[in-house]
Amino acid sequence: METLDCLGKRCPLPIIEVAKKIADQDPGFKVLLLSDDPASAPDLVAWARMTGNSVEVIDQKTFEITKSAN
Amino acid sequence: MALPHIFEASWPDPTKLGVDSKSAAVLLNESKETFAGHLKVRSDEINFLGEPNLGFYLGIAGLLSTDSRLVYSNIDRMEIFAIADSLGPNSSPLQLKASKTGQIDFAGLAPKNLATLQLCNRETGTIQSQRELNCESVFVDATASGIRIPLPQNWSTALWESTSWAGPSGLGILAVSKKANWKNPLPHLDSRINPGPTSLPLIVASALAIDSWAADEKNLSAKIAAINLDIRNYITNNIPDSDLAPHGADHLISASFLYVNAEQLVTTLADKGFAVDSGSACSATNMQPSHVLAALGVLTQGNIRLTIHHATTFDEVKTFLEVLKATVEELRK
Q1: Looking at CA atoms only, how far is residue A18 from chain B in angstroms?
Q2: B238 shares a domain with B282
Q3: Which pLDDT score, from 0 to 100, does residue B180 have?
């Protein structure tokens, strides 16, 4: 799995980078995001709800993102 | 009465004996009666605070006893979080979690508990539907609701902020119920509740403001509700990837926009003449996202908080929404 290192980047940059990363990928594509921004944990969950993608919170700084079918 | 006249009439200390002080005392008492009428409390339960946020501590710590437990919620004001943190290790305060619509389930309250009840959340406008709580002491946070929502029957202490009825800032009102078992938590030598003195001109100005706000609200609440609906519909239908906090009080709206930097959004809107607040981390002094938005699962990035005032017009709102849409699009590029 690819890792997207956004450590040190502030909101909204980590989520913008995730969206760019998965934009041209096939459904089911997974990426591991590293982010220490305090807004990342709540906002990735909200982003997943809004966009239909899924996010698994591994710990407060590590998130596994899976692109959805739509 | 215009502000300069208020200052002229209310400079003396109302507690002194001179003629000027006597007329200042009359002004103070008249103001208390005005507030008592609107807030639906007794005038001798009213205490003025020059530092409104001090009322969270006075109102809560004054009700705590050695065998009571503080029960508060994760969408309460940070001032209450700080009080919970400051209590000794044996007090074990309990933090209740709001549902995704912002409602708190108080079903598990024990009779000896001291509960905090936020009538309306100042960020999202969330109104608590369960307001009659089954416990000994209830601190009511009415800072955002003002006089829109009545006090519950068994309130013990209650806090208002003058700005909620378009009165001057820097004035809070703490009511302590005559039925409450309240002890002054601050060092004190007499029976006064607030350390004082509080600015009499601000009190008089705020009493005039609450009278005029209440009269306006009767005529304008329907307009505010219609504007709220217009804003929500416009954002939902015209700005993609937006997230609105659930509808609560009509005068407050919290909206978030994916992939947008809130600091840029707020400053760009300010440059175009619109003053909005934000709950995003990048616009907060502590660089933390709003704990209220996070608790409700609402997006915290690109967040703006809107307050609809009595004077807000449909035309202004129409222009604002067009500017908002263009600004969000511009910032997303």
Answers
A1: 10
A2: yes
A3: 96
